[in-house]
Amino acid sequence: MIQYVIKRILITIPVIACVAFIIFTLMYFVPGDPAIMILGSSATNEELTYYREYLGIDKPYIQQLGDYFYKLFIKWDLGDSWIYRTNISDEIANRLPRTFAISLYSIFVGALCGIPLGVAAAVKQNSWVDKFILVLSSLMHCIPNYVYAILMILLFSLTLGWLPAYGIGGIENYILPCACILIGSFTGLARQMRSSMLEVIRSDYVTAARAQGFSRKSVYYLHALPNALIPIVTMIGSQFATALSGSMILETIFTIPGMGLYLQGAISKRDIPIVTGSVIFLATWFCLVMLLLDVVYAMLDPRVRDQYKAQSGLSIRRRRHSA
Predict the structure, then answer these.
(1) Helix, strand, coil percentages, rounded to 5, for the chain
(2) How far apart are CA 268 and CA 277, in angstroms?
(3) What is the CATH code of the structural domain delimited by 98-322?
(4) What is the pLDDT of residue 21?
(5) Which uninterrupted H or E stretch holds 4?
(6) Which distant-in-sequence residues (6+ apart) come within 8 Å of 191 by Cβ?
(7) Which of 74, 77, 293, 294 could cross-link to 237 by cystine, CB 3.0-4.6 Å?
């Protein structure tokens, strides 16, 4: 297992390098002059030339790419913002807890709501409960979260005045953004949980347990449910990683100074160091979450754990044979 984790970490390095190469190349060839966008159209040619030299964008593409990779992978520095003159790593550290809190709370509550609904739909298959949950989850899942954001602001902020429509402060500022992500989270989990539970219920060992006289509840909830939760763990982790990197629109709507609003502002102002640094950080975060999910998956599923042990034993025997 330890060898597998080390191997996955080593594989992550070229993945991050590819992401850095792609995002840097895309931002390099995007039309427009950053110096003009920062200084304005009224700047003189001398000022523009000096600023291009100051930013280092007057160098050839290969040289800029080499300098960026050296700073990123040797110095572990994401660089500084061209416009705000602040360190990008420090800004991410300040903004990440807000985005992290929104993603964590929404996915956690979504799991608490979606998993029981999926189990109920599977246990009562083809009943009115099953059909109601399927129709409700499908209907709510196909509506974008920014539509829910606008509707919730109109209802709970402007009409009822219960919750603030924007900004940060107390916990009440996070209720509406979390609710928007929560809706998409629990509807997807409910449908996936139903499918996984039905697959386990139809398996041979569940049929054998029912034939031996065990009660329906004990078979479903003590034996079938733990096995049905294994693929749900992967989905929850994927939703968490996606919510952390995909909350740009919601943070813009609710004016929450998190990662999404930071990246959106950098894109509109063509602050290339912020864009590249934020994308690389989010890609690294996604890879780490997927690695953690694989480890948790192996801990929950004995078959996967035995597979890792078998692969490790096979590699050891091959080394001994070659020696």
Answers:
(1) 80, 0, 20
(2) 15
(3) 1.10.3720.10
(4) 93
(5) helix 2-29
(6) 118, 134, 137, 138, 141
(7) 293
| Token pair listed for 128 | 């009115």
Candidates 92, 61, 60, 97; CA nearest to 79 is: 92
List the one residue out of 231, 229, 248 whose CA is nearest residue 103: 248
Instruction: Give the model's pLDDT for residue 284.
Output: 87
Q: Phi and psi (nearest 5°) for 124? A: -105, 50
Do residues 191 and 118 make contact, with C-beta atoms less than 8 angstroms apart?
yes
Q: List Cβ neighbours of 252 (8 Å cut-off, separation of 6 or more).
A: 260, 261, 264
Per-residue pLDDT, 199: 85
Distance CA 151, CA 202 (A): 41
How far is residue 173's CA from residue 213's CA, in Å, rounded to a whole number?
Answer: 52
Residue 3 to residues 59, 288, 293, 313: CA-CA distances in angstroms? 42, 16, 16, 11
* Residue spans of the chain under pLDDT 70: 1, 4, 245-247, 300-323
**Dihedral sign (CA 150, 152, 185, 246):** positive
| Cα gap 15→132, rounded to integer Å | 43
Kindly state the tokens that stand for 233: 């763990």
Residues 20, 21, 26, 31: is their CA dihedral positive or negative? Answer: positive
Q: How far apart are CA 265 and CA 114, in angstroms?
A: 34
The span from the CA of 266 to the CA of 82, in Å, is 10
Q: Where does residue 85 fall: left (phi above 0), alpha (psi -120 to 50 degrees), or beta otherwise?
A: left
In whole angstroms, give the CA distance from residue 184 to residue 200: 25
Q: What pTM value is reported for the model?
A: 0.78
Cα–Cα dist 206/149, whole Å: 43
Looking at residue 220, what is its pLDDT? 77
Q: How is residue 302 written in tokens? A: 């004995």
pLDDT for res 321: 58
Question: Which of 73, 86, 71, 33 lies closest to 269 in space, CA to CA?
Answer: 33
Span 278-306, pLDDT tens digits: 889 888 888 888 888 777 777 766 666 56
